[in-house]
Amino acid sequence: MTKETIEQVLKFRDERNWRQFHNPKDLAISISLEAAELLEIFQWSAEDTWCQEKKEKIREELADVLMYCILMADTCELDLDEIILEKVRRNAEKYPVEKAYGHKEKYTELGE
Asked: What is the residue-averaged pLDDT of the chain?
């Protein structure tokens, strides 16, 4: 995600004076609600878990989730690049390629 994209989301919020309503609790709730709407797209889809025909709706809901994540990071004064890269580093330690490659198990269940 580019700095310009993040700035556009924040500008949209600020132009409407919505920052006053954005506290961590309500933003976390909003992220969860939007994620649930994304999940709803796949409800009752049986074996068809990709749902190519629903791609536009997936785009819309995923954008909502990401925008709320940007707003949450801004409210909590967190740098998105920093927190994501740190999480990738920690996950790389928990899931070394030689143990995790091709396996879906949680890191605590990977063989030695």
From this structure: 93
